[in-house]
């Protein structure tokens, strides 16, 4: 396996850090997965899954979103940008996609987004409509736009009170405060991430994980969520694009499965022909870091292989 890192520059010339994992024989690459990571984490946390993919001749690219990982270290962790943050994170996705396409001009590309990254991914594909062969959404959710509007009002008030770069404990409590309640007695404040305590400890000990995001990031993200949660937004995806949605039955982000079901239904109602939903019993938020992560990874790759075979049959 060949592993490397690099930096590209966004539309505002901000440096965007990325990683890629490639098979030793480039001519054997069957597909590329572009990973969009979650909130308060970074691209390197997907290395184990990337190794699983490379073993099946699937290349993986993952970049650190603004305010995250090595990209965020250039400015401030937990902060997209002072202005137009949502627009810029979507633009960054496009810039990375264009780089992948230049590197692999004829290879089928899939996008996988986890949690916050699943929302950014949807915002990106709805707006830019890239040439992808499948959409994979992990640890995601669907809620009605009105709920996000109420939350954004609170974020705006905190921003007015303390400024755009303020890391609000109030917003943190309102968003994540209840997530651990289902897992009492708690061993850590992040038990909701995974039932594998070793993986949770890795997250806690990682200096690029678990930080509090700024009021401006929350304003940006919630504005994006309002946009992508409109029923009309789902119709911007080509009806021929296959979608895989997966998550844990015990994931509070996905409302313990109901949010995943609602998300799946919205894609189906929008006319998407091929929507697969996989909810793992006893799984928590990070299924790629759960005790059955090998099974989860194999399921993703099996789904991807089935889409590649369908493409071959058409061609």
TrEMBL record:
Q: What's the superkingdom here?
A: Bacteria
Q: Which SUPFAM superfamilies match?
A: alpha/beta-Hydrolases (SSF53474)
Q: Which residues form the Serine aminopeptidase S33 domain?
A: 28-291
Q: Which InterPro entries match?
A: AB_hydrolase_fold, Hydrolase_4, MAG_DAG_Lipase
Q: Name one Pfam family in it.
A: Hydrolase_4
Annotated PANTHER family: PHOSPHOLIPASE-RELATED
How is this protein named in the record? Serine aminopeptidase S33 domain-containing protein
Species for this entry:
Litoribrevibacter albus
């Amino acid at each position: 396996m060949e592993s490397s890192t690099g930096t590209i520059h966004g539309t505002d010339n901000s440096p965007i850090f990325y990683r890629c994992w490639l098979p030793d024989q480039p001519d054997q690459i069957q597909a590329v997965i572009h990973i969009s990571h979650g909130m308060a984490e970074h691209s390197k946390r997907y290395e184990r899954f990337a190794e699983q993919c490379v073993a099946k001749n699937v290349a993986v690219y993952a970049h650190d979103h603004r305010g995250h990982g090595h990209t965020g270290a250039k400015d401030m962790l937990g902060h997209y940008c002072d202005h137009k943050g949502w627009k810029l994170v979507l633009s960054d996705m496009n810039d990375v996609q264009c780089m992948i396409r230049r590197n692999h001009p004829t290879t089928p590309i899939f996008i996988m987004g986890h949690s916050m990254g699943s929302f950014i991914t949807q915002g990106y594909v709805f707006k830019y409509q890239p040439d992808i062969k499948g959409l994979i959404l992990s640890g995601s959710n669907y809620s009605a736009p009105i709920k996000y509007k109420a939350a954004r009002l609170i974020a705006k008030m905190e921003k007015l009170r303390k400024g755009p770069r303020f890391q609000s404990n109030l917003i943190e409590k309102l968003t994540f405060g209840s997530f651990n309640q289902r897992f009492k007695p708690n061993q850590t404040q992040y038990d909701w991430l995974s039932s594998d305590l070793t993986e949770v400890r890795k997250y806690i000990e990682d200096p690029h994980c678990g930080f509090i995001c700024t009021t401006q990031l929350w304003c940006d993200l919630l504005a994006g969520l309002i946009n992508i949660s409109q029923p009309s937004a789902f119709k911007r995806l080509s009806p021929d694009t296959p979608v895989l949605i997966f998550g844990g039955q015990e994931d509070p982000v996905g409302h313990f499965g109901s949010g995943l079901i609602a998300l799946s239904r919205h894609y189906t109602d929008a006319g998407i022909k091929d929507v697969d939903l996989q909810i793992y019993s006893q799984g928590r938020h990070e299924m790629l870091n759960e005790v059955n992560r090998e099974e989860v990874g194999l399921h993703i790759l099996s789904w991807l292989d089935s889409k590649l075979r369908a493409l071959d049959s058409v061609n």
